[in-house]
Design goal:
mainly beta; two-stranded antiparallel sheet
């Protein structure tokens, strides 16, 4: 059985001409063959900055919520569950959006590494 990491055959899209570009031998292309636009790395996800009132919140982890970044119960029936957290005073917080933080649900700057 062959294991293929997720996203290996996911087509790129040129930001200039919008054409779909297939990976060649599992390697993403560096230049669009149609319009010759250089293709850089995909942008790193930035944290979600929100101002929150004191209370208990649940950060969605399944990605299906219609009220992102907060849970709306869409994970029901799956193995996913939200991350519950408490805010004690009104403040602006940065919620992780890359999935690499060690301080979930808050951003610890892992998206920059």
């Amino acid at each position: 059985m062959c294991f293929r990491p997720a996203g290996v055959n996911k087509p790129q899209e040129c930001p200039n001409c919008k054409k779909k570009l297939a990976a060649i031998g599992g390697v993403k292309q560096k230049i669009c063959p149609f319009c010759k636009t250089p293709l850089g790395e995909e942008p790193k996800p930035e944290p979600i900055t929100v101002e929150l009132e004191p209370g208990t919140y649940q950060r969605c982890t399944c990605g299906k919520s219609k009220t992102m970044p907060f849970c709306d119960g869409s994970h029901a029936g799956s193995t996913m569950s939200p991350i519950q957290f408490e805010i004690t005073e009104k403040q602006q917080v940065k919620l992780c959006n890359c999935g690499k933080t060690k301080k979930a649900p808050f951003c610890d700057g892992s998206h920059t590494k």
